[in-house]
Amino acid sequence: MRTAAGMTADTAAGLLGLDRGKISNIESGVRTLSTERLRVLADGCSCTDEAYLDALAEMAQPRARGWWHEYRGKLPAGLLDIAELEWHATRLYTAQTVHIPGLLQTEDYARAVFGAVLPELPRLEVETRVSHRHARQQVLRGDRPTTYVGYVHEAALRMQFGGRDAARRQLVHLNEQGEREHITLRVLPVELGIFPGAGHALLYAEGPVRSLDTAQVDTAHGPAFMHDPAQLAKYWSHLEWMAKSALSPEASREFIHTIAANL
Are 203 and 215 a contacting pair, CB within 8 Å? Predict the structure, then answer.
């Protein structure tokens, strides 16, 4: 909001009666911002989007520690950030080309994936990552599960992580999850050829308003999170392409069932 208005951090500090260092800490998420100061800043930035301001005010309120905090110091911070992002999202979309979506992985499949990491991870860290991945899946359970749409490439369905039996159990589990009302799974068959975003896995998390959406992609150095409107528009267009091109949920279930039956 501040940068969009062309306001410097020094000006914002003067407007809010804070020193510049505190502005930096607020914007990096180290410090919270009171609702009153948020409204003052919004007025100074000529921001009148009430839905956006209400969402920012809600984010600024002190929150109880999330379940992912128990993994702090045990796993890379980026993995905890993914769990927190999923927890607070209003809707989730993923696109996977090599792996089954993490939120739908069985423990055996996840264990095989983490067991293939180089340099090799200690067994304890592999099990900790498996436990963390399983805990992330609670966003799809409970009385108010998050709506989820997953696009999975055929190549991911045919990767036999953990061997034939583990892969078969994973595909059966995937189809079972796809039958749940709040989960939509759609397959991108290889016959589609090239498609946008083919080189990376994508997580797109909707916030309470579109301007608070987040896109996350995997890199060799860990997860990267993007919030810039141009970046969000790019990844949203990828998802729109997939929505038009992927098999229907019903055809996708049959497709997955056929692959599983032939293992």
Answer: yes
